[in-house]
From TrEMBL:
The lineage of its organism: Eukaryota, Sar, Stramenopiles, Ochrophyta, Bacillariophyta. InterPro entries: P-loop_NTPase. This is Uncharacterized protein. Residues 1-54 are annotated as: Disordered. Residues 1-10, 40-50 have a biased composition (Polar residues).
Length: 317
């Protein structure tokens, strides 16, 4: 492999990407994610509904579960099929940081447009503004969810059980932001949620935890093989089924993992674990999950882990 050498933070010298390997990584991992994360909101709203994010007597309070992961780690299965079954007061924002409507629904057409950055590359957007964007989308979707519950339930039991509160789940990948943006974005999210706690009505303070960092990691080489297999064999399984895992393991056409991909994987997880260690406190909880937790453990077991991490604030139906 051709390319210059560079040193990482530990002084380990690594080669920078040679042309062939870098082209391979770009082709596999920097393409638009048209196959992944296709679950989007089915609720149609107008832009007018997003323009009022000020607190009032009917405003909502939100807590956030950030699924900090990477592509081909079964994060979709975690967010959509496991977490969505935990709490009736739940909203899945999917890949809200991805501008494509396939991943983020109407968020960029409404909130990003209202905040004035929908036309910009996300790497040029201030992390504080991005945090505001995600929380605004979450509050709007929460209002819509509670309103939907209210319209479908004449006794409003479900609405009342939510206490004007929703758990917001979103997926956060290394590829969503520039490296420098991630920590600043997460810090701003936590700070803005803390201000929400301090200004909220007493009834919403029963939810002790406001931010859960669910760090989901799959071995880098398994991710590499899964992505290659999915792209070349059109098998975008998001549930980690035994049949899919076996087919990926038996595939003979997968090239060796690029060194730069392994480095990027390690760099990403070191970054978010470092942030988690510094940020963890009473209202920020950290949960480590593996690919095996998601694909092999019974769903109630994984749900119980998340509930424990959230201090019991996430309800199990």
């Amino acid at each position: 492999m051709s390319g210059a050498s560079s040193s990482n933070a530990n002084g380990v010298r690594r080669k920078t990407a040679g042309t062939k390997e870098q082209d391979l990584i770009n082709t596999m991992f920097l393409e638009e994610e048209e196959q992944e994360g296709q679950e989007t909101s089915t609720i149609n709203v107008t832009a007018e509904s997003s323009n009022n994010d000020k607190a009032d007597d009917n405003d909502v309070s939100i807590s956030v579960i950030a699924v900090l992961s990477a592509q081909r780690s079964s994060s979709s299965f975690l967010a959509r099929d496991i977490l969505a079954q935990m709490d009736e007061c739940h909203v899945n924002l999917n890949e809200v940081l991805a501008p494509s409507a396939m991943q983020s629904g109407d968020a960029w057409a409404i909130e990003a447009n209202h905040l004035g950055f929908a036309h910009l590359p996300i790497t040029q957007v201030d992390p504080d503004l991005l945090a505001q964007f995600v929380l605004q989308v979450g509050r709007r979707k929460c209002r819509e969810t509670l309103l939907l519950f209210h319209s479908n339930n004449t006794t409003t039991t479900t609405h009342n059980n939510c206490h004007n509160h929703c758990w917001i789940v979103y997926k956060h990948f290394d590829t969503h932001l520039a490296l420098w943006q991630h920590s600043l974005f997460l810090k701003s999210m936590i700070q803005q949620l803390q201000r929400d706690v301090e200004s909220s009505l007493p009834i919403t303070r029963v939810h002790d935890t406001r931010f859960v960092m669910a760090i989901l990691e799959r071995h880098a080489e398994e991710r590499w093989r899964s992505k290659w297999y999915a792209r070349h064999h059109k098998d975008w399984d998001t549930h980690g089924t035994p049949q899919h895992r076996q087919q990926v393991d038996l595939a003979q056409d997968v090239p060796p993992m690029a060194e730069e991909f392994a480095f990027a994987h390690d760099q990403w997880y070191q970054l978010i674990r470092g942030f988690a260690a510094a940020a963890a406190h009473d209202r920020v909880r950290v949960l480590e999950l593996t690919y095996e937790n998601i694909t092999q453990a019974p769903i109630p077991v994984t749900q119980a882990l998340v509930r424990q991490a959230a201090g019991g604030a996430v309800m199990i139906n």
